[in-house]
Every structure is written in C-alpha cells, then in structure tokens.
Amino acid sequence: MTTDPLTAEVLRNALVVAAEEASIVVVRSAYSTFIVEGSDASAAVLDARGRLIAQSMATTLMNSMALKLALPELLKDIAPDTMRPGDVYALNDAYRGGVHTNDLLVYRPVFVRDAPAYFTATMIHVSDLGGLSAGGMAPLATDIFLEGLRLPPVRLATAGGLEPAVEAILKANSRTPDKVMGDVRALVAGTAVAAARLESLIAEYGADGLASGIDDYLDHTEDRTRAALAELPEGRFEAAYPIDDDGIDQERRHHVRVAVTLGRRTAALDFAGTDPQVPAAINASASQSLAAAVFAIRCFLDPTIPMNDGCLRAIDVHLPEGSLLNARSPHPCGGRYVPIYAAMEAVFQALSDALPERAIAASGILQPFSIAAVGAPYWIHLSYDFGGVGARRGLDGPDATGVHFGVGRNSVPQVEPVESRCPLIVESIETIPDSGGPGRYRGGLGSRTVYRFLADCHVTTRGDRLRLAPPGREGGQPGRLGGFYRRRVDGTVERLASKVNNVLFAAGEAFIVETTGGGGLGPASERDQGAVGADLDAGRVSARGAAQDYGAG
C-alpha cells in the first residue's frame, strides 16, 4: 500500500497525531496539579501483537516502554475474545510491565472484523494511591506493599461507564479520591479520542491497507536504526556507575554495570554484573531499565529516527532477573529513577569510550520530592528539579535540565498555580554559580529552589548523586553536590538525608532543594578565557571560582 512515499508519510504522522491528541485530552481533563500544570501525560498506539506503533511527542520512553511491556501481560489475564467495544482496562503492577503504584496504565481495544486489532493507551502519575507517603513516594519502603495499591489487569470501564467495584477500590486506597477519579476519567477519555482517530484511519485506508502501512513504517524505522548503528565503531565497551546509598543503609554503595557490544548493524547492552535487588527503594522494573538503555544508545544515533517497535528490533538489552534493574516480588520499584539513571550513565560512559569525539561527562540528575498535608483534607505537591548536564565534546553542559528520558523541565509546575493550590510560597528559583564541574568545557549548573510553608506539612525526598559527585572526563572536574535542606524560622539551615519519608516541617520553615552540577570535560586550564569572562558576566561562575578554577586574574 505504501509504495507512494507521500501517502506513507501522511499515515505515519496521522498515527503520531492520534496519540498526541489523546495526550492533550488527558492533560486538559486531569485533576492533579502535576499533570495539568506539568503536562506529564503519555499516550501511545499499539497493536494486538504488543508492538509499539506510535507515541505522542510528550510521551517519555519510561512510559512507552511500560505501555509496550504491560500489554502482553494484560492479554494473558483477559482473553481478547472476551473484549467488547467500549471496554477499557488498567493495571499498575511493576512486575508485569508497569512502573510503580501511582502510574496507571490504561488500554482501550480497537476492533477490526469483530476482534481487537489495536490498543490505544494512556498513562499518568495519578495523585495518590496509598503507600508510606502521599503522592506515591516511599523512599524508605522495604517491600512493594509499602508503596501503595498494586493493581493487576482489570476491566476499568465499559461502554456504560466506569466499573463501580474498581472505582470503589481506587477511591478507598487514595488520600485524594476525587482527584484520583478525575485523573482516571481523563485517562479513559484520552483512549477514546485516540481510538476514534484510529477508527477513521481504518475507514480511510482499509483494515489491510492500514496494517500494511504500519508494517512498512516499522520496517523503515528498523532500517534507519540499523544504518545509524552501522556508523558506530564495532567492539565491546564496558562501564559502571555507583548509587549513593539505598536510604536504609547510608554507607552501602550499589553499582550498575554494562557491557555494550556494537556489531555491524546491531547493538547489545548486557547489564550482567549489576548488583542484586535489595529490600530498599532503589530497584527498577524491567520496563524502566529497558527505557534507560534504549534512550542512552539513541542519544548516539540520528535523533530523527522515530521511536517505535522497529527501533527496538535492532537493540538487544539483557537485564538480569533479580538485579537492581529487573526486580522481583516483593522488592520495591518506586525508586526506579536511581538505578535507571545509573544504567543510563554507564551506557553513556561506555559509548563515550567508543566515540571519544562525542564524549559526555556525568550529569546531575533529577531530584524528586513531595510536600503534603499532615492530615485530611489532603493537598499534595509532587515535583522534582533537575541537575546540570555533563559537558560534551565542544560544548558546555546545559544548566538545570538533567539528562532525562522521563520528562523535561517543562514538567516542573509553574510557581503561580502551585502557590494557588498549596499553602506555600516559592521564595526563589535560581541556578547556583560555580556548581558546574570546571573543565575545558564546563558542566551545566545545578539549581536552588526555596519553598516556605504557610502550614505544617510532610516532606518526602528521593535523591541521588548528592553524596557521590558526577565525575568529569579527561581531566575535567566533578560537579558540585546538591542536597535537600530545612531552614528553620531562626534562619539556621540543616541538611536532610537524600532519602527521607514524611519529615515534619512547621509553618514558617522552608524547604530548600539544591540540585547537583554536571561534570566538566578536559582540563580547566585549557578553557578559553573568553568563555570564562562570559561565564562571569552571566553569573555562572563567581570571581572567586574564576580565579580558583580557571586562573582568571
């Protein structure tokens, strides 16, 4: 069908737009501040074989890989021949493709000749589904049961509306039941919009024509991915990256290890040797670790290659079962950012060895936290902020954006809506001078945000790279460490551990979030003095830093 290139391109874009429109509907319909203001919603189109066909522009690899890996699990439990038009299904089980408790994966079958041929899917982090702390953060969980409600594949809705029993379960397990159900209805609405667009494509191209066009699209993506891999040097490249601690044992380090083997038109990423899973919130499910691996290698490929199943065919990822990157029950998975960022960094460093002309130093990462009411009625502010990116060959690292395959800085809610919904004042948001690792190319700066509370509240944090600084490369220096802090009413400041749960803050106290800077690349003595002067003028380095780190007089 798609011998005509113009028709093929129109079809490919129509599939992406179907997912994109679903994502927009979810954002505009959701109740949670994090979704409405941060636009953190994902949507995708898959087929009944579990192939990822298209995803919205805002969909993160973390979420699209979850939607892909969880669909076969849904179909194991619920036979396709029992599905009916209007049915909608949901799950959140991390061991079955999901992410963690608060990330609900929602699917709607699209029928061809009376059988499900495609699924439209949406996914967001709903406001709260129980667990040790509000908003789905449980940094000190020792098993998955402390992270909140675990939902196996269930029918969430029919053509007649939400299933009353499932609605009752969700509401009974949430501190914010009205917001959760508002979020759930938004997810259902998003799948409906995408399904309608997909049905119109079936009508326009015919069932066989659409199926043929999708096959061609995935094959085309595979060919482009393999061609891009063929440009990389063949060989085996190994690296590892450490994790600060697990929150339970402050002195215990954990490591993620990878061997990247580049063939003529293939890539294999083997994480054998990664430390085993632990009864602490620094494990990840397979879908999240797959996302980290795929994202990291795609950073060295043509960025215009579409993200769909065709790309995945060329990349083989091995995640040892029972390791930090592929946890088994009952080990918690909510702290997935910690190990998968280490996995991503390990791949970056291995590929930087393979392609030194495109090397990148290690980065500061996102630092998640939640602020919540002490008791009912509950309000929750769930957010994070980003560290500086490591310096790259020929370029300084971007400031306070973090190398992030989950969401971008646009997902950080703006000040005004946060202050209008929560009893707090955001006193300041700024980058931190001298926080980027000095080098010929400077690491990106970390940031500082100060929240002053107007009511007593609980603060929960889940940080990393706050004890072990991101190292520089080739003589570059590490980034400055960030941290979480409490500023008392009398002005004294105390540092919190990187992973704390429900720390009570009193009205008038302030919570300070400082993120870590990225590592530098190359000796600082080789930095162009004009660049040092420009950094001084822009406030990225202080006069003292310029003199101490770069020898500027």
Automatic annotation (TrEMBL):
One of its GO terms (molecular function) is 5-oxoprolinase (ATP-hydrolyzing) activity. Its EC number is 3.5.2.14. Residues 518-538 are annotated as: Disordered. GO terms for biological process: glutathione metabolic process. Residues 4-523 form the Hydantoinase B/oxoprolinase domain. Pfam families: Hydantoinase_B (PF02538). Keywords: Hydrolase. One of its GO terms (cellular component) is cytosol. This is N-methylhydantoinase B. It comes from Nonomuraea gerenzanensis.
